[in-house]
Specification:
Layout (H helix, E strand, L loop, with lengths): L3 H9 L5 E5 L2 E5 L3 E6 L4 E5 L2 H10 L4 E3 L3 H4 L2 E5 L5 H15 L1
Length: 101
C-alpha cells in the first residue's frame, strides 16, 4: 500500500519532474505528462507502452489495468494505490517517466 503523499514524492523524485494541474488532478510531467494522481479514488494513472502495460497487468490485474477507454489501448494504466507495493509503483513511474523524458 502506498499513500497519496508517498506516490507524489516518488513521482517528483524523478529528474526534471514537476507537478501541474491537469483538469483538476495533480499531473506529473517533464516534456509531457507521465502520470496523474486521482486523490479521491486513491489511484494513479501512468502512461506506459502497451507492452509494459501488459507486463504489469499480467503481474496483478487487480493492481494494474488499462484505463477503460482509447487511452488504455495506448498504454494508459491505472494503479490501485491501496494494493501496490512501493517498489512496483516506483518501477511503473520510472518506465512512464522514461517514455516522456
Amino acid at each position: 500500500m502506498v499513500d497519496i503523499e508517498t506516490a507524489r514524492e516518488i513521482a517528483l523524485s524523478l529528474p526534471g519532474a514537476v507537478e501541474q494541474d491537469h483538469f483538476g488532478k495533480p499531473a506529473f510531467r517533464t516534456k509531457r505528462i507521465f502520470s496523474t494522481l486521482w486523490i479521491s479514488d486513491r489511484r494513479m494513472v501512468v502512461m506506459l507502452s502497451p507492452i509494459d502495460q501488459s507486463v504489469f497487468h499480467s503481474f496483478d490485474a487487480s493492481v494494474f489495468y488499462p484505463v477503460p477507454n482509447k487511452w488504455g489501448l495506448k498504454g494508459a494504466t491505472v494503479i490501485e494505490l491501496d494494493k501496490v507495493s512501493r517498489d512496483m509503483l516506483e518501477d511503473a513511474l520510472t518506465l512512464a517517466w522514461e517514455k516522456v523524458k
